[in-house]
Structures are given as structure tokens and as C-alpha cells.
Specification:
The structure holds two protein chains of two kinds.
Chain A (H helix, E strand, L loop, with lengths): L1 H7 L9 H10 L2 H25 L35 H37 L1 H15 L3 H12 L3 E2 L2 E2 L3 H11 L2 H14 L3 H8 L4 H37 L10 H11 L6 H28 L7
Antiparallel strand pairs in A: 1-2
Chain B lengths: L1 H29 L4 H5 L5 H10 L13 H10 L12 H36 L4 H15 L2 H15 L13 H32 L2 H8 L4 H12 L1 H17 L2 H7 L4 H10 L3 H29 L7
Helix pairs in contact in B: 1-4, 1-14, 5-8, 5-11, 5-13, 6-8, 7-8, 7-12, 9-10, 11-14, 12-13, 13-14
Classes of the chains: A mainly alpha, B mainly alpha.
């Protein structure tokens, strides 16, 4: 090879992996990168709120429960979104709400991934009766309208003690979202695995006696993992919106501020001309949803141009 | 054709069984016994026992012909859902709520479909232009705004501030009056995602060879769009449209809640507030059955519209 290179004066082109190639293309899209920065800011805000709460840092911004003035003060420079009925800063409540929303969306994603991906892979790889049972389970779940299913789960799980753990506040919310939202990814992974299980590398692995779990988790799943990433960057938005609606209906966090609870407060406040709490929650939700929508689309176009929005 | 429909109907059996199993596990096993909570504080053991007997909660869970498990199946399949927590028959509640829900959802649904399909045709025709980009940006922005904000700000500005519409439902208003604003808000809130979906569908069709041929032989733009492209784009559209119909019966949880419209969405929100498992369970079952039935209808529609789909 080196002889040939020196003889012809050509350098061999190093191949790029799917990820390197996709990320390279993604980096060229300025808007997508901006959106990624916004998402990262929300994530670090959530982490910051966690740290501040755990170590009880005495920082004004993290201290949402402090009374900073009279109730319903309109926005000022010091308190950009005014105060609520208890005289707490709406701005600080909004920042704290990011923690709740991000926690719910992340936990729900983890739950739904850890159910959907293995089930989809197993159904696609083994086929037969295993496949039929898994397809039956997800067809049943998907035949119930999504919002009703989430609510049914959330209502039943709220304040229940399961296996010695009491499900309060957001735990019930992300369990409900996670347990109901794995169907889409399960379907996608099943289809991909079915398509790929006849490819050469799987046949090769099988021919030298590689056990099925190893083929699925070491060979097949890494090759379909970009689908998981794309699907979840887009699904994250719907998790955040679901959390807002559940909190709004009183099924979420009761004692700490969340965006849904803020909107619920705003329902009565708006008629008194108190618009800032509503506006703050709307902007917070809008920014992260917009950023995730644009970033998710860009990621999809870069990693898998063939996959369209489901 | 008949065999095809019968076979599709048989596929429904395991799904319906699954739905009943799920609602049983969810509400009877995990949800537990609401009798103590229903009897209220300081209730005697007799009152609790009476409530249990009234709702059939004193029967064994499994392993008997008169068990809760068997009764759950029997009642659901005969659409006798028993009584809600306030002792009213659930069937009555649902029948009463269906009217207001439908009068809200049907105009909203057809409005959204008509507007988004015609807009998507225009956008698909202008693909790549500034207008196309602008509309896509507006769509994504609309999708990112929370539904609740659409409703609250719409209600506040259009009804409360400007007084163009009534703020809340009341019985002396005509249907058209109280439904108008929720319908407008619903259309606006849903337009983003619908338009984006149809735009993708239309764009796929616009790239096809038959479109180039149609233009090449000198057909007018409107003729190509409405007679050729629309017809071929029908398959994904039909899926969306028919599968959205079961949701029409369900009404809109949030819109009905905000505007006080006494439909099925409102019933559901009330049931969630009161932790009324009986109503939630019945609503879950009915919505799932509707969805399954309409799924079969979609498949039959496919076969009717698209000659490439065979009945085998």
C-alpha cells in the first residue's frame, strides 16, 4: 500500500464514520449550532439548580421561595418578570421550572428508551411468537389516544406506593410519560433490526457462534443508534409539553414551581391584568421547544437523510 | 373485499382484549379500592362495605365467574359502565358530553384540514422561495408554542379584552357563538404541525415524473396541483384524517376546560380532578375502541383509493 502510494503520489483517503460525517455537516449549520447552545444552556441551568439545592448554596437566583416584594409587582429591571401572589420572583420560578421540566423529560426519555430499544431489537431479531407478543403489546398501547393514556397512568400512579416506593410529584409524571411513550421507538428499532439482520456482518457473527444477545447489543444496536438519537431529540419537546399539561391539570409537582403550575396560576391572574407569569412560562417553553425542534431536524438531515418526520 | 374486512375485524380481537386487560390492571389492580376514600372521613365500616357492594368491589378479583376481572370484560363489551363516583350513570354522562364535543371538534377539524391542505399545495408549489422558508419558520415556531399559551392569550385578548367572543360557555348562547373562538384557537394551534406534515407529503409528490409530464404537456398549474398531485397525495392524508376522527368524539381536554364547554374533554378533566377511575376507565376503553374501528376503516379506504393495495 505504501509502495503504491509513493509510486502514484496519492494519499489514501481516510474513511469517515457515519457520526464523524454527520457531525461535520451539522457543525456547518450555524442555526442548528445556535439551537444546540440554547439546549445546552437549559441543561446546565437544570444542573446548576440541582447543585444549588443539594449543597444549599446561598445564591439569589436559585432561591425561588424568597419573598422579594409585594404580590403582583409588574416587571422591573431587578425582577424581570415581576412577582407572583406570594411576592416571589417570577423570573427565579421560571429558572427553577427548567429543572423540573428537564428532569421529567430526561427521566421519561431514559425509561422509554430502556423499554423500547431492547424490546424492538428483540422483536425484530427473533421474529415469530416473540415478535407477535411484543407487537401485540405495543399495538394495544398505541390504540389508546396518547394524551388519555398518559393521564390514565399519571392519575393511577400519583401518590401510590409501588414496591415500597411512594410515587409523589414528578416521579409519577415521568413514570407515566416514560411507560407510555416507548411505542414509537420500539417500532422504528424493530423495523431497522429486521432489515439489518440479514446483512453480512450479522451473518458472519452468527456463523462463528456469537450468542444472540451479543449480536443484538454489540453489533446491531450500535448501527441503529443514530435513529434513537434523532427520534429522541425530537420527542424531548413532546415530553416537555406533556409535563406542562400534566402539571397544569394538577397531576405534577405540587410544592415547587413548574411551568405548568405557573400557567395554571396565570389562568386567574390574566383577568386581573397580571400577564408576566404567563409570558415568562410561555417564553421559557417556547425557546427550548424551538431550539430542540430545529436542532432535531438538522440532526436528522445530517445523520439520516432518508428518515422523515414521523 | 368481504373476506378482507372480516379478517381485519378479527385482528381487532386481541387488541380489544389487550385494552381491557390494560384498563383492568391499571385501574383495578394498581389503582386499588377507592371505597374508603369515597366514603369520606369518619365513615363506618358498614358504609364502606355498602359502597364496595354497590360498585362490585367486594367480589373476588379473579377465579370466579362473578369476579371483577370477568365483570370488567362483560360490562365493557356491552357498554354498561356502571355509575360514576357521583352515582350518575357513566353512559348518560358520555352521551350528554358527546354533542358539545362534536360541535367543537368537527368544525375545528375540517377547518384545519381544508386550510392546511390548500396552504400546503401553495407552499409546495413555491418550494425554495422566500415565502416557503418563511412559512416553514412560522410553522416550527407555532409548533413550539405551548398549546396552553395559545388558549390563554387567545381567550384573554380576543374574548376578554376585545370582547369579540363570549369568554365562557353558557346555556343561553347559540352553539355557533360559544364554539367560534375555541375553534379559531384550535385551528391556529394545530396548523403548524399539520401544514409541515402535508408540505412534506406534497413535496414528495411534486418531484415525481408524472408532475413534470403534466406540466410539459401544458396543463395549468391549478389543474396539476388539484387533479394530479392531490390525488396521489391522498394516501398519507387519508391515514391522518381517518385516524383523527376518534379524537373528535373525545373533544379537546384543554379547550373545553378553559371555555367551560360541557363536553367529553371537560368530563375527563373533572374525572381526573376527582380521581374518578370509573369514568377514566370507561373513557379510555371507548376511545381505544373508536381508534381500533377507525383503523380498520382506514385500511379499507386505502384499498378503495389505491389500486396498488390488494385485498389479500
Amino acid at each position: 500500500m505504501t509502495d503504491l502510494q509513493s509510486a502514484t503520489g496519492l494519499k489514501s483517503q481516510k474513511g469517515r464514520s457515519l457520526w464523524a460525517d454527520g457531525l461535520c455537516r451539522l457543525r456547518k449549520q450555524k442555526l442548528a449550532m445556535l439551537c444546540f447552545v440554547i439546549v445546552a444552556m437549559y441543561l446546565s441551568l437544570a444542573v446548576f439548580m440541582y447543585l444549588a439545592e443539594t449543597f444549599q448554596w446561598d445564591i439569589d437566583v436559585a432561591n425561588w421561595s424568597e419573598e422579594v416584594g409585594d404580590s403582583y409587582q409588574p416587571p422591573t429591571i431587578k425582577h424581570p418578570f415581576g412577582t407572583d401572589i406570594f411576592g416571589q420572583s417570577v423570573f427565579r420560578k421560571t429558572l427553577y421550572g427548567a429543572k423540573i421540566s428537564i428532569t421529567v423529560a430526561l427521566c421519561a426519555s431514559l425509561i422509554s428508551l430502556s423499554i423500547g430499544v431492547p424490546l424492538g431489537a428483540i422483536a425484530g431479531y427473533f421474529g415469530g411468537i416473540v415478535d407477535e407478543i411484543i407487537v401485540w403489546i405495543y399495538s394495544t398501547l398505541s390504540s389508546i389516544p396518547y394524551i388519555i393514556l398518559i393521564m390514565a397512568f399519571a392519575v393511577v400512579l400519583q401518590d401510590k406506593t409501588l414496591f415500597g416506593v411512594k410515587l409523589t410529584g414528578i416521579t409519577a409524571v415521568y413514570l407515566a410519560i416514560g411507560l407510555t411513550s416507548w411505542v414509537g421507538i420500539c417500532r422504528l428499532i424493530r423495523g431497522e433490526v429486521m432489515k439489518r439482520k440479514q446483512s453480512e456482518y450479522v451473518l458472519a457473527a452468527r456463523s462463528y457462534g456469537c450468542p444472540a444477545p451479543k449480536i443484538i447489543f454489540r453489533h446491531l444496536l450500535p448501527n441503529v443508534f443514530h435513529i434513537v438519537i434523532i427520534s429522541f431529540s425530537l420527542r424531548f419537546v413532546s415530553f416537555i409539553h406533556a409535563e406542562v399539561i400534566l402539571s397544569f391539570l394538577g397531576l405534577g409537582e405540587a410544592n415547587r414551581p413548574s411551568w405548568g403550575a405557573m400557567i395554571n396560576d396565570a389562568r386567574i391572574e390574566l383577568s386581573r391584568g397580571v400577564w408576566w407569569q404567563m409570558t415568562a412560562a410561555t417564553i421559557a417553553i417556547f425557546l427550548i421547544s424551538l431550539a430542540l425542534n430545529i436542532f432535531g431536524d438538522a440532526l436528522r438531515d445530517c445523520l439520516d437523510p432518508k428518515l422523515r418526520t414521523q | 373485499m368481504t373476506t378482507y374486512i372480516i379478517r381485519r375485524l378479527l385482528y381487532m380481537v386481541p387488541i380489544v382484549f389487550g385494552i381491557l386487560l390494560l384498563t383492568f390492571v391499571l385501574f383495578n389492580l394498581i389503582g386499588g379500592d377507592p371505597a374508603i376514600e369515597m366514603a369520606g372521613k369518619g365513615a363506618t365500616a358498614e358504609t364502606i362495605a355498602e359502597i364496595r357492594a354497590e360498585y362490585g368491589l367486594d367480589k373476588p378479583l379473579f377465579l370466579s365467574w362473578d369476579s371483577q376481572f370477568i365483570n370488567h370484560f362483560k360490562n365493557a363489551l356491552t357498554f354498561r359502565f356502571g355509575r360514576a363516583r357521583d352515582r350518575e350513570l357513566i353512559t348518560d354522562k358520555i352521551l350528554r358530553g358527546a354533542g358539545p364535543s362534536l360541535s367543537l371538534m368537527v368544525p375545528m377539524f375540517f377547518g384545519t384540514i381544508a386550510i392546511s391542505i390548500s396552504l400546503s399545495l401553495v407552499v409546495a408549489f413555491m418550494r425554495g422561495s422566500k415565502w416557503d422558508t418563511l412559512i416553514v419558520v412560522v410553522c416550527v415556531a407555532g409548533m413550539s408554542l405551548p398549546y396552553l399559551s395559545f388558549i390563554l392569550f387567545g381567550q384573554y385578548f380576543l374574548a376578554y379584552k376585545l370582547g369579540w367572543f363570549p369568554v365562557f360557555f353558557s346555556h343561553d348562547l347559540s352553539t355557533a357563538r360559544y364554539v367560534a373562538l375555541p375553534v379559531i384557537i384550535g385551528i391556529l394551534a394545530g396548523l403548524g404541525s399539520y401544514l409541515r406534515f402535508y408540505r412534506t407529503v406534497m413535496l414528495d409528490e411534486m418531484r415525481a415524473d408524472y408532475v413534470r409530464t403534466a406540466f410539459a404537456k401544458g396543463l395549468t398549474t391549478s389543474r396539476v396541483l388539484f387533479q394530479h398531485v392531490l390525488k396521489n397525495a391522498m394516501i398519507p392524508i387519508i391515514t391522518q384524517v381517518v385516524l383523527a376522527i376518534p379524537f373528535l368524539f373525545l373533544g379537546s381536554l384543554l379547550l373545553e376546560r378553559f371555555f367551560g364547554i360541557p363536553g367529553l374533554g371537560y368530563l375527563m378533566v373533572e374525572a381526573i380532578g376527582a380521581r374518578d377511575y370509573f369514568v377514566i376507565s370507561a373513557m379510555t376503553f371507548i376511545s381505544a375502541i373508536l381508534y381500533v374501528v377507525f383503523n380498520v376503516i382506514t385500511d379499507v379506504c386505502y384499498a378503495l383509493v389505491d389500486p396498488r393495495v390488494s385485498f389479500d
